[in-house]
Amino acid sequence: MGQSAPTLKAMPIVIAHVSDIHVDAGARAAERARRVFAHLDALPADLDAVVVTGDIADHGLDAEYETVRGLTALRHPVLIGPGNHDDREAFRRSLLGVPASAEPIDQVLRTDRFVLALCDSSIPGRHDGLLAGTTLEWLAAELDATPADVPVLVAFHHPPVELHVPLVDPIRQFEEQRLAAALAGRANVVALLAGHAHTAAATRFAGLPLLVAPGVVSTTRLPWEGDGAVVDLDQPPSFAFHVIDDDWRVTTHFRTLG
Ligand SMILES: [Fe+2]
Ligand SMILES: [Fe+2]
């Protein structure tokens, strides 16, 4: 009996998820971010998207965003949203290259195969998170505009649930029932993506997978790992690949650049 040739499946939807690069004036954070983005840019296959879920510039400074702008000029489609360390005006001016404004930075990537809605969960001047009323209205309109047979990923910086990370749980996304209401009855939303926690994590919110990307700049220690320190600077940078199958099942692979 001869071996039959393996059946080649069509490439599923593959989205790289990077978070919390915290680029500042020093070399360390920029170098770790550079390694991740250079790795993604050198992949043999084209990705459907690279999403970066916030805490882009450590101090929200124009010079930091200019550095990030160079690091994130990739051959893949890239969507970058803000976190609690970011400044909306500088983010727009020096990263997105659009007129400065303090309004929430809500962005969508629309393709024939999927939609990625990246909501701004930051509150200017604060570290906890909230989806503004205008952001929820924007999300509803984007979901209304998406055909029922197109899967949607909804992303934001702040996770809307506790993750058992003492540093992050008090500054998570609050009033999360408003997000749950916005997702109710939206059968084509397949997963939620977040950052902020600086730890690769998977949980559930509103009946959906909630997938949290690791932090490129650092890793939080969990209470049962503790020696008193809450942040581990020695673990190498990492990120996630989210894969969406034809049946909309989402598989996440976490990758570490050793
Ligand atoms: Fe962060
Ligand atoms: Fe954050």
Automatic annotation (TrEMBL):
It comes from the Bacteria. The keyword NAD does not apply. Residues 14-199 form the Calcineurin-like phosphoesterase domain. Keywords: Hydrolase, Iron, Metal-binding. Coiled coil: none annotated. Belongs to the cyclic nucleotide phosphodiesterase class-III family. This is Metallophosphoesterase.
